[in-house]
Amino acid sequence: MQLRLSSGNVLNEKVHKVGIIALGSFLENHGAVLPIDTDIKIASYIALKASILTGAKFLGVVIPSTEYEYVKHGIHNKPEEVYSYMRFLINEGKKIGVEKFLIVNCHGGNILVESFLKDLEYEFDIKVEMINITFTHASTEEVSVGYIIGIAKADEETLKEHNNFEKYPEVGMVGLKEARENNKAIDKEAKVVKRFGVKLDKKLGEKILNNAIEKVVEKIKEMIR
Amino acid sequence: MQLRLSSGNVLNEKVHKVGIIALGSFLENHGAVLPIDTDIKIASYIALKASILTGAKFLGVVIPSTEYEYVKHGIHNKPEEVYSYMRFLINEGKKIGVEKFLIVNCHGGNILVESFLKDLEYEFDIKVEMINITFTHASTEEVSVGYIIGIAKADEETLKEHNNFEKYPEVGMVGLKEARENNKAIDKEAKVVKRFGVKLDKKLGEKILNNAIEKVVEKIKEMIR
Fold first, then answer.
1. Would you tell me which residues 39-98 of chain B have a C-beta closer than 8 angstroms to some C-beta of chain A?
2. Is the overall model pTM greater than 0.95, yes or no?
3. Residue range A85-109, pLDDT digits in tens
4. Right CATH number for B17-223 from 3.40.50.10310, 3.30.70.1660, 3.40.50.150, 3.10.450.350?
5. Distant-in-sequence, close-in-space partners of A129: CB < 8 Å, separation ≥ 6
6. For A13-223, which CATH superfamily applies?
């Protein structure tokens, strides 16, 4: 069966060898404004949009996610479980002709699996790259991107509630003491959020989202050069 | 870890028990205007959008697809392979609290797996439903929906090319002799396409897409009543 690789809105015939996978987290508190599956919803949105714009294959999502021990704001898995799920998707993706895999990751803790990517490349004789699109947790950037995608409940009252760091310590990780003690970058971000609070900035959300999609599209173009 | 189930744009706390899965096909000719992964791209778009609008979990896509023996316009798998992939996704979905699975299917041939849904329900003690959103193959409806989503190359010249049923027998299945002989419904549709041709109707595409998303959203609401 000869497939029509140049049909439709596709960059070129080679793009059919590229598979995009969304990675985030499903069970993670994000204050009042954002849902617990914020990270995977943002990752899925960006991954699918970039696939539509280029013709690359959208292979779905990785369900498990992982996190640093000292960050306690959700339910996560061991890095090995994320790795094992990736193995499954790559194995299935190879069956439909994918040779280059691009993982769009929108949850900071998943950076812990980057060390596995070389093993995947070696085992399956493929190319795997990961793009990390992450934000200060549940803060102005993520709230604004979430709003543009449609997952945020960002009325004035809920936003006010969201800024109650006592009640929602995960927001900006302001109230995650152990995380702040163990990670300087987290502590620095928390200080900024505590001082300036979390706002909804629709223009910012749009800009960040478009830049993120553009970044993935550029990476896909690079992968088929 | 207490998860904030009512946070964000979610119908209610129960919606977190609903998982949406996209099912289509990745390797199937769709004339000149549409790409070979049209069905899974449309299914993914509808499934993700409905998940965003309701708060249901988007669990990704099923990579294998199946087809009737007599329809030869792509590369497909046995129904059992689709079933086995669904088993994997359901097993993983249960781990994050999903109890009700909704499969958004945009490839007619996958109706062959409907007989497996009861087995899945029995094996995993869960609820599985499938919504079929299918069109006359690569014809006006699908071209128009594909255009709205962004996967179509629908300039005048390509559309003209698309209507060359000699060169693209799969369009409307006009030139798929075996399929038309074996299936009256396919034959009937092929006659209509042969007579009226394939056009781009942006308004129609928008209307069909919105209705499809609405249909999935209503089914999700029903599943959490």
1. 40-41, 44-45, 48, 51-53, 55, 57-61, 63-64, 72-75, 85, 88-89, 92-93, 95-97
2. yes
3. 999 999 999 999 999 999 999 999 9
4. 3.40.50.10310
5. A100, A101, A102, A103, A117, A219, A223
6. Creatininase (3.40.50.10310)
